TrEMBL record, chain A:
Domain Lipoyl-binding: 17-99
Entry-annotated residues carrying N6-lipoyllysine: 58
Family recorded in the similarity comment: Belongs to the GcvH family.
Functional description taken from the UniProt entry: The glycine cleavage system catalyzes the degradation of glycine. The H protein shuttles the methylamine group of glycine from the P protein to the T protein.
Presence of keyword Cell wall biogenesis/degradation: no
InterPro entries: 2-oxoA_DH_lipoyl-BS, Biotin_lipoyl, GCV_H, GCV_H/Fam206, GCV_H_sub, Single_hybrid_motif
Listed name of the protein: Glycine cleavage system H protein
Top-level taxonomic group: Bacteria
The organism of origin for this protein: Sinorhizobium chiapasense
Record keywords: Lipoyl
Names of the cofactor(s): (R)-lipoate
Coiled coil: none
Lineage: Bacteria, Pseudomonadati, Pseudomonadota, Alphaproteobacteria, Hyphomicrobiales
Length: 120, 387
């Protein structure tokens, strides 16, 4: 199941674990990224908490945790090479995997069609 | 995800346009409000590529939002205008030869900085370029300060573009004038395709380059001709900021303002010997007592370069500490970001004088962490001015 937030994160949900990243639209708006800071595995976040930071030459932006949950894995590849977020934001450049506190809460997020309408 | 810098939903209808506004839009620029103007922050290539292109070839910047002011002596003698301006700036204007340009500062009675500017001697008048956000105040300040001896006129009928980078000279020579004989800070009035322009060999990137003042009716034409050259790319405010930061140059309003003095700001080089204690025309500018005292005794704090150790940018506003626990505050970052040519974070800011020595290890607070940084001589990149 693929879901989106109004803050331009995507979630690929398998069971009770969501793989989270930022959308192609967001990556385009940010421009070339030069730095990514990810949370520690094991950290817990509430929906809306700042879970990661991405920086372009000119600005820092927060990436919010899209749902309540615990970080179970992070993607070191985008820390080593932030430009991956620009080249493959909805594939190889995922940010973290989140064990959802309440998987049913994902139903309230946007589906792909609704997100596309939002950024159109 | 949210970008903290974005002026969300700001009413932009009141913004002024430079003569090149439509050209920016046609080039696909992303526009932002800046100093009351609708300005390009970046073009489709993006800040990173624009920055690197400027250092590798040539970048073209619209800086028409800046104020261009003519100070013409009523007596007809340039010396009278120079001496009048010296009452407002701690700069040797009298010693500025015809066709030469010099960096300057307007100071206030407390020794703070009202604005920074470029001063040019064009023979029978002085030509000033001042910051956009300050230009109306500067104009009033000039009229009040030297209106009795000089006619002060804001040029609203000229655009200003900067062509910066190692290919700038070749591009200008190929397309138009013979600028190869000009040195850094030389200024010439020249016809570019029958358009009467003022060309200075200076800029705000640390690179060799030129600033070209163009009559407004020819601004689009001249700019388009420059952009047609394969070495030239349009550059927005985003890369302008990262370029000047790597070059160690101050941004007025960030790194210098009415609360900072020239000595605190490490701008002693902008105050020539003739205006310092013991000089021919020592003092005689606003705030001279404090500024000359700081020359003699040092200032309590100093603007320094700060090189973060890791990859994380340390941005303006970050607090600086002497220790990794954030107990002993010693200063603040005033500008910081990622330097594409340095390929790492760079910053500048003010620290207590006893922490200002090159090599001093300090810590900046970023998102609750204390990141190590080192006081470092600026510029962060080698200047390539043609002296």
């Amino acid at each position: 199941m693929l879901k989106f937030t109004e803050e331009h994160e995507w979630l690929k949900i398998e069971g009770d674990v969501a793989t989270v990243g930022i959308t192609e639209h967001a990556a385009g708006q940010l421009g070339d990224l030069v730095f990514v800071e990810l949370p520690e595995a094991g950290a817990s976040f509430a929906k809306g908490d700042s879970a990661a930071t991405v920086e372009s030459v000119k600005a820092a932006s927060d990436v919010y945790c899209p749902l309540d949950g615990e970080i179970v894995e992070v993607n070191q590849a985008i820390v080593d090479d932030p430009s991956l977020v620009n080249s493959d934001p909805q594939g190889a450049a995922w940010f973290f995997k989140l064990k959802l506190a309440d998987p049913s809460a994902a139903n309230a997020l946007l589906d792909e069609a609704a997100y596309k309408e939002l950024v159109a | 995800m949210r970008q903290t810098w974005r002026p969300d939903l700001e009413d932009i209808s009141h913004l002024k346009h430079t003569p090149l506004n439509a050209l920016h839009l046609s080039l696909g620029a992303r526009m932002v409000p800046f100093a009351g103007y609708d300005m390009p922050v970046q073009y489709p290539e993006g800040v990173l590529k624009e920055h690197l292109h400027t250092r590798a070839a040539a970048g073209l910047f619209d800086v028409s939002h800046m104020g261009q002011i003519v100070v013409r002596p009523k007596s007809g003698r340039i010396e009278d205008a120079a001496l009048a301006l010296e009452k407002l700036v701690p700069v040797d204007v009298l010693g500025l030869a015809e066709g030469r340009q010099r960096y300057g500062l307007f100071t206030n009675d407390e020794g703070g900085i009202l604005d920074d500017l470029m001063i040019t001697n064009l023979g029978d008048h002085l030509f000033l370029v001042v910051n956009a956000a300050c230009k109306d105040a500067d104009f009033e300040h000039l009229k009040k300060g030297l209106g009795d001896t000089c006619d002060v006129k804001m040029l609203d009928d000229r655009a200003l573009v900067a062509l910066q980078g190692p290919r700038a000279e070749a591009v200008l020579c190929e397309l138009w004038a013979d600028v190869a004989s000009m040195r850094f800070m030389d200024v010439a009035e020249a016809d570019l395709h029958d358009v009467s322009c003022i060309i200075s060999r200076s800029g705000y990137t640390g690179e060799d380059g030129f600033e070209i003042s163009i009559p407004v009716q020819s601004a689009v034409d001249v700019t388009q001709r420059l952009l047609e050259h394969p070495d030239v790319m349009p550059i927005g405010l985003g890369a302008r900021d990262s370029l000047r930061l790597e070059a160690g140059l101050c941004l007025y309003g960030n790194d210098i303002d009415t609360g900072t003095t020239p000595v605190e700001a490490a701008l002693e080089w902008a105050i020539q010997k003739s205006r310092r204690s013991g000089g021919d025309r020592s003092g005689g500018f606003p705030g001279a007592e404090r500024i000359l005292s700081e020359f003699a005794n040092g200032a309590k704090r100093r603007r320094v370069g700060l090189k973060p150790e890791g990859r994380a940018p340390v941005r303006g506003g970050a607090k600086v500490f002497a220790d990794a626990e954030g107990k002993m505050a010693v200063g603040t970052v005033t500008s910081g970001g990622f330097g594409p040519s340095v390929d790492g974070p760079v910053a500048m800011g003010y620290v207590d004088a006893d922490q200002a020595g090159n090599g001093t290890k300090l810590y900046a607070e970023v998102r609750g962490k204390y990141l190590p940084l080192t006081v470092t001589a600026m510029p962060f990149v080698k200047q390539t001015y043609k002296r």
